[in-house]
Amino acid sequence: MTAPTDRHAALHARHRAVLPDWLATYYARPIELTHGEGRYVWDAEGTRYLDFFGGILTTMTAHALPEVTAAITEQAGKILHSSTLYLSSQAVELAERIARLSGIPDARVFFTTSGTEANDTALLLATAYRGSNQVLALRNSYHGRSFTSIGVTGNTSWSPTSLSPLQTLYVHGGVRTRGPFAHLSDEEFTAACVADLEDVLGQAGGTVAALIAEPIQGVGGFTSGPDGLLAAFKQVLDRHGILWITDEVQTGWGRTGDHFWGWQAHAQAGPPDVLTFAKGIGNGMSMGGVVARAEVMNCLTANSISTFGGSPITTAGALANLGYLVDHDLQGNARRVGGLLRSRLEALAAGSGIVREVRGRGLMLGVELVEPGGDTPSATAASLVLEAAREHGLLIGKGGRAGNSLRVAPPLTLTVSEAEEGAEALGAALKQAESAMEGATAV
Predict the structure, then answer these.
(1) What is the helix, strand, coil percentage profile of the chain, to 5?
(2) Which residue, of 43, 93, 212, 329, is most buried by count of CB atoms within 10 Å of its CB?
């Protein structure tokens, strides 16, 4: 690994002096990424890394994808900005494509600049449509950084305040292998979660607006309930007129391999009422949005615009990115290469005393770490593996309620050889971390 430079040390010092203390960075010695190509990135000191995190699942297709770069460059030479006060052919075309792909009938699309803003908008729509500020959310959930979205975040490590404009009611179902229902079969687990939902609704004392749920919890460590759980929830919600908001900020666009959207693993009761998206569609550009049935989307009676949502340059890049993804069947690639990668990770887990579980699907895989030979969540193990993986030329993420889960989510163009390379690096990192933990215990 390249030794720190005076420039790097100075930049880190400036960062700490002017940016918030709560602004997290990875690594004991944070790195500055200066350029990328395909699935690789380089830092300011010239070190190359295989990127298995994609800027938090945002570089969806590839770094410096020529088709996206060309579309952005061409648009930048015309006009960068106009706002929603003016027509935009790119925004209309992108909205038409997303509406068709969403699976929501009579769909309308509103563009935002981020997933947080998309979820804020979805909550605004649901509460206005239903005339209630009561919202259901899953335990261990994460829906964004804003005041409103923090109010429906069930992962306390990402919830800095208990104040909220919403009354949030948390239900079981986001974590399959821990908690009071972990010992049950999938069918029994689903029935127990539905019973919990019914019980919560019985105590709500009002008209609940919506359930917001990630089909696979991102920051929560890539956890999820069994397939069909949210469909079982929807049957209950429909009886009460409660909306289902599916947060697809991390699960959308084919990342799970088996489906284009995460909600499609729970499609038995029909599509959601509202869908939010962001991250991958822009491949790094600031892009998000909401899809909803027309009667829900159109329920707002006050004036509204978006200054930056659906700007000419972001929609041009997103159109090129979405076109590339569909034309090259990157969902299929996520299924095939993701299946290979998962099998390699499961093999590593079988030989490791600090891996409790490998989970997820497609190219959205989680590795839960514990104390050596036990079942106690270990944030220390996750931090050690994160650092060691970087030393071996691999960038990954981490998360989970206890901060003990690795998040593996490469760009969807990942090749078989790159999957093998990444698995080898992660295997070396796991061994290095386990050895360090055992050594510390022995001392």
Answers:
(1) 40, 20, 40
(2) 212
